[in-house]
Amino acid sequence: MRRAGTFLLLTVIVLLLLPLLSLGWTTLSRLRPPQPRLLVLDDGRRILAAELDRDLEDRREGTRRVLQADGSVGFLGSATVSAMTVPEAWFVRRDDGPPVMGRLVGLATGAGDTLRGEAAETALREMPERIREDKTRMAREVRSAAPGAAFGRAMRQWELLRVADDRALAFLEDLDGVRRPVRLSAIRESWKASSSALGPWLAAPIRAWTLFLEDPDPWSGGGLFPVVSATLATVFLSGLLGGIPAILAALRISERTSPGRGARWIRRGSAWFAAVPGVVWGTIGAGVLVGGAGDRLDRLFGDHAWRNGGVLWGAVTLGALSAPTTLSAALRAIDRTPRLAREIARSCGATRWQVLRLVVLPQASRGLAGAWVSGLARAAGETAPLLMVGAARSVGGMSTESVHWFPRLSGGFLHLGVLACDPPWPALEAELGHPLAFLSLSLLAALCVALELVATRLLRQGPRRSA
Amino acid sequence: MIPPAIHPGEPGEAVHVEFRGWTVRHRARDLLRWIDLSLPRGRIVALVGPAGSGKSVLLSSINRMLDDLPDVETEGTVLLGGDPLWGRGVDDLSLKRRTGTVFRHAAVLPGSVHRNVAFPLLLDGWRPGARLDEAVEASLRSVGAWERLRDLLHRPASELRAGMRQLVNLARALTGSPEIVLLDEPCADLDPRETEIVERAILAISGSTTVVLSTHNLAQASRLPHRVAFLLDGKLVEYGPTDRVFQRPIRASTEDYLSGRFG
Amino acid sequence: MPRSARIAEAFAGAILRSGGWVAPLVLFFSAGWLAWQAASGRGEDWGRVFGWFAGSAVLGVAGICLALPPALAGALLSRRIPMATFARIASAMPLSVPAFMILRRLGPMVSQAWGVPAQHPAWAVVALGWGLAMPLWIAFADALERQTVREWVDGALALGANPQRILWTLSLPAALPSMGAALMRAVARASGETMAVLLVSGNFSSSWGGADGASSVGVALALDLPEATGGGGLWTDLLRGAVLLSLWTMTLHGLALRLEPVDSEGASE
User: Fold this and answer.
1) A: neighbours with 3+ CB pairs under 8 Å?
2) How much is the pLDDT for A59?
3) B48 pairs with which residues across the strands?
4) Option in C106, C249, C250 nearest A22 (CB)
5) Do A148 and A276 share a domain, yes or no?
């Protein structure tokens, strides 16, 4: 009977944790660099292709989805006879076309040289980033050059760079001898086929880091850092705009040892307000902030940014949403400080502020920090209200100025939860199995869990006994 | 009001605290009714009576802790050394500095023993240093606790036993040289040995300081104070020298309470 | 007290007094704005308002009905949750995470294997139930732990009772109010998260509902609020739906508070 109970228990646990386990597995799996392999089919055909993660349609139709050397997606209905790693094959992901696979037969540097062999491979790894940096630097110089001779010089340099860029090409040859040129500055990622089965798995976290740091690009995807920074900015700004006032309110209510009627109503109200769903707060944010204050600000400044939402509106909405949670937790933390200690301090002639500073805060500081973090955790887990106050559902739909390293307070903004759930990344990302969508979701989950664990740890400590 | 026959004072005895017609009402309920009482300077006065008789309220009337209770109305006068304690324009914070209070349950402030004892001076803006250390030592010596606590000054006060905590509280109450020390059932949670230690400390400080002690412990009330005041239902029933009140009570209710027939 | 300390104290006191009113004022203003907009607009279609509200409530209750058996079984079978840290991590996830995996990965696999329709609102119930089962389990287990008085257990053991008997006759009856409170909070949460589930389904379109067929308040707000004109009929109806949903969740939380006040972080699911 006991064994049956334990078995049932473990089954229930595994079932309940399945989505979480599946998320971790799928994220790693989708982040594995697709490996170019030689597929020999039973009808005699030989193709160079990378097998992609099997999705719903493939299984039902009994097909295998592969990315072919020219970047097109193929569906193999035949059984594969054998699959072999092609050690010299490269996989190149670029932002001006579909990915390309093949043997690297040569690399033109743009300065007239052609490299082969190891030199070409080294250049393939290093030159794309360098060329992009040069172009960015030159573009900045052109923009900042004073009119006249300096501008003319800068434009000539720019023109030379552009010509060199057009000539900087890598040549990949597939099994049929077809050579495909790839512009170096358009290359986002490139890797050589791995001979070990473990290699791609080990490369998955590194690839996650690369995708994280990459400049965001509406065509080829990539660039999670701006999304992460906007998410973090929204959450922590909500902590400042909502959490701090909530803690001040808790301290204000607790100032008196016997609270008045107003304080009692606020205590009860905070528990009830914490029950209001996030989507209702999003509605209020949409009406009051975006439609109301945003409209008035735009008329005042002659702009269109504020009525499209923004990080600031998102932060205020999340702050209002999480304030009751923070307030309730802060009140509980302060109530845990012994009332007699406050009375002793008052009897010594301490003012209410001195009682707070010298008695309440030293004992309740950990609990107050936990209350603030628990508000952040609540804010981080809410995605739906942000959709209503301007979170962008498409990177492609945003101006390039909004998609950058540090978020601006007005205008459409990015959020991990929104982009994970409705991935706007182009078809290419979908073909590669949505690695960014799963990575976004994993990052969001990690953020929420980290905040929740920190909050739990802080709130479970009792009042400190020593100074 | 109690007839003068049962409210005797010794000739030449200075009055330190005086209640004149003092009444305290909380939400239409009388907590104290028409209290006329004079407490002599430098003596120990005990307040006895059953729970709810108004002992703690009387103490709170001296140190102004009644301010923290909402919806309280007062009538009459309370004078400390001739200065009114209640009324418009009275600075309750500076008045609190003239009193020291020790509460029941041996609760202490967060922090070390040193911080607890020095607390009233820290409120006045004193900074850690030799001067503060000397003041702490003087307070602890005045309650006879220096030798016991000199090696524990920087330990958390909450880690001490109840009796030691009350000594720390008593020392804290004396820091800043208050005129009057109020003790609200200071030995309620202590065992007999700890009670003896605290009582010796109380005796040590009387003489230079007026002590008002609220207690349920009749044995303590019979051996410690110079005067005893018996309160019942917010009224002062009897007040006089300890020996006389315990051996020849005038009021029947006093005799009933002291003999244990109720309370 | 030195003059500088008095000035600092006055300044800090002013910040505390004024800053302490910001949060309550914002909360009450928000509630007032919502109520005023819902009451003063031109909406007249109470049928669709109650339809949306009923959708939210039904989805929430149905989702928790699904979550209840595994949560209860887990809490009763194991007094201390194995892999406790992992379980708490799972319960700290936003609901969109398990819902995403269920609706986009596991659900399609099941649909293909058993021929079940993949795009059906019933999957929302599955996502809600599956996602909230672990937090509910933790809440139940915490309730059993907190409400069991150690002295009762010692006494019962001394009288010869076995752990199962103690669980059913002592612990469970004592913990029922707390478990009921956790259940109500879970229903409130599930009712309020229908929009998040729709969002992760990847089919953010009228196949899940529109102005005429929206299945819940959250869905209706997500789909129709951007197009609604302020003060118009649709706008007012949507806000009335939001008010009804809030009253529903607040009522559930209020009942939960009556059953058991939230005295620790573990008490809320």
Assistant:
1) B, C
2) 53
3) B230
4) C106
5) no
The pLDDT assigned to A172 comes to 93
Alpha-carbon distances, residue C258 vs A141, A445, C8 (angstroms): 68, 33, 42
Among A21-35, B123-137, B163-177, which is the least confidently predicted range?
A: A21-35
End residue of a domain, out of A151, A178, A195? A195
- For residue A55, give how far its alpha carbon lies from the nearest alpha carbon of chain C (Å): 9
What's the mean per-residue pLDDT of chain A? 81
Q: Are residues A190 and A267 in the same domain?
A: no
- Put simply, the answer to whether C23 touches A9 (Cβ < 8 Å) is no
Same-domain check for residues A255 and A134: no
pTM (two decimals): 0.83
Percent of chain C with pLDDT over 90: 19
Distance from CA of B128 to the nearest CA of A (A): 14
The residue of chain A with its CA nearest to that of B174 is: A348
Report how far residue A453's alpha carbon sits from residue A434's, in angstroms, rounded to the nearest whole number. 28
Residue B245 distance to chain A (closest CA, Å): 31
pLDDT tens, residue by residue, A168-198 = 999 999 888 899 999 999 888 898 888 777 8
Give the right CATH number for C43-259 from 1.10.3720.10, 3.30.565.10, 3.10.450.50, 3.40.50.720: 1.10.3720.10
Q: Up-side HSE of residue C26: CA atoms within 13 Å toward CB? A: 27
Q: Which residue has the higher pLDDT, A74 or A155?
A: A155
Q: Which residues in chain A are closer than 8 Å to C185, comparing Cβ atoms?
A: 275
Instruction: Please report the sign of the dihedral spanned by the C-alpha atoms of residue A391, residue A392, residue A393, residue A395.
Output: negative
Domain around A182: 37-195
Whole-angstrom Cα distance, residue A363 to residue A467?
9
Cβ contact (<8 Å) for B65 and A343? yes
Torsion of CA C177, C181, C187, C190, to 10 degrees: -140
| Tens of pLDDT, residues B64-91 | 888 878 788 999 999 988 888 888 888 8
Q: What is the pLDDT of residue C204?
A: 46
* % pLDDT > 70, chain B: 95
Assess A262–B contact: CB distance below 8 Å, yes or no: no
pLDDT confidence of residue B263: 67
- Judge whether C160 is closer than 8 Å to chain B, CB to CB: no
C9 or B247: which leads in pLDDT: B247
Q: Are residues A190 and A236 in the same domain?
A: no
Q: For C217-227, what is each residue's pLDDT tens digit?
A: 888 888 788 78
Q: Which two tokens stand for residue A208?
A: 């996650």
Same domain, A182 and A275: no
Contact by Cβ (8 Å): C189, C166? no
The reply to whether B90 touches chain C by the CB within 8 Å rule is no
Which residues, 6 or more positions from A419, have their beta carbon under 8 angstroms from its beta carbon? Answer: A227, A393, A395, A425, A436, A437, A440
Indicate whether A157 and A254 sit together in one domain. Answer: no
Q: Is the pLDDT of residue A327 over 70?
A: yes
DSSP secondary structure string for all residues of A379-425: HHT--HHHHTTTB-S-STTS-TTTSSSS--SSS-B--HHHHHHS--S
**CATH number, domain at A442?**
1.10.3720.10
Burial class (CB in 10 A: 0-12, 13-18, 19+), C258: exposed
B40, B210 Cβ separation under 8 angstroms:
yes
Residue A25 forms part of a structural domain? no
Lowest mean pLDDT among A46-60, A107-121, A432-446, B221-235: A46-60
Overall domain count for chain A = 2
Residue A181 lies in a domain: yes
Nearest Cα residue to B187 out of B201, B171, B173, B198: B198
A17: nearest CA partner in chain C: C90
* Residues in C 2-21 with any Cβ partner in B closer than 8 A: 2, 5
A242 plus A356 within the same structural domain: yes
Neighbours of chain B (3+ CB pairs under 8 A): A, C
